[in-house]
Amino acid sequence: MKISIQLNGVARQFDAEPGERLRDLLQREGFISARNGCDGQGSCGSCAVLLDRRLVNSCLLLAPQVDGRELHTVEYFSSNRELSAVQSAFVDSGIVQCGYCTPAMVLAVHELLSRFEQPTREQVKDALSGVFCRCTGYEQVYAAVDLASRRLKDPQFKASIAPEFRNDLRVVGKVRPKVDGPALARGESAFVEDRVPANACHLKMLRSPHAHAYISSIDTREAEAMPGVVLVLTHKNCPDVYYNQAGQGFPEPSPYDRKMFGPKVRHVGDRVAAVVTESPAIAQAALDKIKVEYEVLEPVLTVEDAAADGAPLVHNSAVEYVIGAPEGLDNSGAEPRDGKIIYQFPIHADPRKNVAARVEGGIGEIDRGFAEAEVILEREYETAQVQCTPVEPHVVCTRMEAGRLVIHASTQVPWHIRRIVARVLSIPENKIRVIKERVGGGFGAKQDIVLEEVAAYCTWVTGRGVFFRFNREEEFIAARTRHPIKVRVKLGAQKDGRLTAILMEVKANTGPYGSHCLTVPMNACSKSLPLLLCENVKFLVTSYYSNIPVTGAYQGYGAPQGSYALQLAMAELADELRMDHLELIEKNRVRDGSMLEILKCLGEGREGTAQRVSSCGLGPALEKGSKMIRWGAREESGDPDVRIGKGLAIVQQGSGLPGLDSANAAISMLGDGTFMLLSGGTDLGTGLDTVTTKMAAECLCTAMEDIALIAADTDVTPFDTGAYASSGTYFSGGAALNAALAMKEKILAIAAEMLDEPQSDLQVVFRSTIKGKKGSVSYQDIARYAETGIGCGLPSAAGRFITDKASFPYGAHFCEVAVNTRTGDVRLRKYYALQDCGTPINPELALGQIYGGVLKSIGHSMWEEMILDEKGRCLNADLLDYRVPMIGDIPDDFRAELVYTDDPFGPYGSKSVSEISCNGAAPSIAAAIHDAVGIWMRKWPFTPERILRQLGKL
Amino acid sequence: MIKHFHRPETVDEAVRLKEQLGNQAAFLAGGTEVNSSTFGFPGEHVINLAALELSGIRVTESEVIVGALCTIAELTETAGVPRCVQAAGLNMVNRNIRNVATVGGNLGSGKSCGDLVPVLVALEAVLDTASAGATRTVSVLEYLELESKPLITQVRIPKVDANRRVAVGNYTRTSNDMSILTAAVALTRDGERIRDPIVAAGGVARHVVRLKGVEGKLSDREMPDWEQIERWVAEEIAPMSDVRGSAEFKRYRSGVLVATTVERAYRGEEEGAR
Lengths: 954, 274
Fold this sequence. Notes:
The complex is a heterodimer. By secondary structure, chain A is of the alpha+beta class. In chain A, 26% of the residues lie in helices and 23% in strands. Chain B is of the alpha+beta class. Classes of the chains: A alpha+beta, B alpha+beta.
């Protein structure tokens, strides 16, 4: 059909299919900013456009419906690479993180400001009510809208966006535009889906309808015979290679317990077959032609199911060890169809009992500690399975170039992809290039190699480009989720509140494969126990295989579950002791200089080391937060059904993995004295590229625009372990700083020669100048001199960051809730997150990380839960019934505060900021609910139904 | 999959097409239901209503006439539309949806909750409908019961007596959620006594229903205790368990919602029809 649209101010004609969605038409016509996060359900708003100047979801419109109408996409507001007032306000306010939903948000605000000159908070909330953003936590949108409305009147208007730190530094600690912000706000080509060659094939996966079954037969002949089918892949013709999909440093503490496809399926959504075809439509038709018969087995869904005597075995596999095989290893009785498990080293697994990993340890004497206790409290806490829900689902595009495999990835771990793909394909790593594109939300889900190796293999064997993108259902059932965990906490204390013993017993449900099966549940202990100073501590961690959808890394990595249990247990202990919760925390909390002996036994699959706390902002965070929330003051709602309560939690995380992680950067001077910085660091939208740019600019006394950055391309940039474990600023930022320091030395040496002055008399001054006692020389002069035939050549330098030091970020979260005892509704009246990330390198972006992390964990605490039926099928694998928080759900009064400390080990005194933000919501909200209505919510999420049951109303 | 996009220019043409194509065709208004991948229409034909003159809102002395193609956003922004109707419209999911979803579409989709349905039931609105060769005016509940649904052309909302009070409410899990439970109540306050109550509830049956038992118990008496209303509601409804809540929860929560809505209508709060 011919349709006419006034598109972005230009009369355009298009041919459209009768059933073609408007979003698809816009995409194929190059208006790529209308994104896809919900597969046409209309539940995410990423595809929003302005239709007759009103914000609508283009996925819910057929293209012929807009015939004769006026349409605007974000591209309209980005002419000549200029930013609109709204776009510039978004960039300056730090509200652009991953950028996938940014065009939709920008359009929403344009629509809003066309209706209201200076909108109220309620009007802003309504305007953005349909746009899902998982990164930002929305709070900073309000400031962005205010800034935009002022800039519409005065384009030069500047606002104070965030506090700044370190007067001794020029860009570090200062508010500066995110380096990738403008392009993302303009909706430019940036993501994997924007890199797909026109002739690329499409990959679709046939997935298991059963949680636990053997594939007794599979017939792909009809599918293979279909025109347009390039390849059909099953367990019969895939590589015979075992591996683990976890993007962890090698050798991984995760078992190699899977092949690309296997004769056994272990969860609903497990891989059965892949088809590679000329078009998506053919792919679906080909999948329909594959005939599969299953021998269905009883599924194992809970840790109790898994641990039961005679439980079905998820992996009745033959076991091998690369090192450390136990004596008398007995593989008799293993089922050949279950395949093998290869351990890189022992993680104390026992697959014959569904145990994927186990670890225990402690300090002091736990029995003596409990014997000394005057009060003993023992409780169990449970967390539901929750999904990362990046707005951009998992996606990859692979192609061949000059005999090498190129992988365009939306990943947190480009180098782990290269290593794992090389293993699976049995080819050298030098045959593979991984290019990390902009990542539309990672949150841990993209720490694993969830789809890349399949597309890579298909390209390698066919020579064809392959595009593979999960739909939203696949994102739920086949990507990565937070481990459901049960934690038993036993606390011993004196009547004065001093802890004498802590026991944590963690039982984690790791699902069908063992990605992160040891380290996630360990983190439940390692990121919660060191917050409390106690001489007698013991932990026991058991991770069970089951047939639930795959678990893995999720922002916080086990810490949110452990923190919920231990911090809420402390609230319960305070109640038992009739002591103020804050007072109990103060009596037992970690402090600056505390020696953390417990870390000796909390290494990630290896021996750890005790650490002294190098900087700790907990004291000021607790002091300020308690004043902000009026701790101890009772608030009244004025409604007899509504009770107000307050809660708190202290939180910590790490800053990367000392002794395990490493990061590298390289920097070279160009002919005009500017620089090219090559960083291995992977920016997921967090602002890491801005961090590394600032590190170099600060050190070299040059402007940020004088540093051009290429990051996370395995052909071009040096190795980096990846963006996980809160390592970005500390490790990748540290590597950039070290490279810049090395560059500075080289520049000084050349300048000394040019100025004929000793290097010790020279200093680097802004902008790009070396000043001596006799004269000065610019970087441009140095470059011009160095590149001549008599010069030493343009300088280049490399930097590496490794450490055995751990710099812990700390924080205190306070909240105030209103609990309606009739409805079970919990309203968040206040949430204050006060966090110490050392020197905040990008203050406005650091605040955004806090808001985003807190809101995700509020979601987990209040609404989010993957609901499985008795067959292991997820009943709410979409954004309609899996309830992620949106702008209307944020706390009425939502504040993130940065508590400054100067860490001696982090680059420019910095520590991590993101993951820690996820650790406070569950325990503080649960404590506040108890303060309000006297019930202890020991299972998240705290839905109205669960609240009513606890209140005895149901 | 949609293979044919029909663009009739008159109501007559549209309904004849529908009669001819039967279940293979769906009327297409805003498209938030028909085009949704979750609720979407599985047939091959859509009959786009955009060219029909079914837009606009007219306010007369006796009624407010809302064209079926009027969007929810227009409904909530137009002066003269009863505030309780606007409040029900604003309860619908989010702005992106309200900007394109239509009044006729919301009624025609036959959802268990139907954001606008309870309030239109409470206000005793009627629907002008068209089918091949016939036009017919039916009440909202009559329409919902029809096996073969005619095309709604407009909604007529009668102006209510000055003593009539109306309130609406809904329950969603989060801010950006479809309504799980809805309620609307209209009553006349005669001193302390309740007269002629209409209580409509959504999310507790296949489509929105009137709780006649509750209405009978509320009639000609002073405002009862909330708990009593909650019990009456619980006795009269039989919601289904699903992923959005157990039957037990929905029964209890619907009771609370209806009781609260009755109370708010009784007190004459801001959503009143006046």
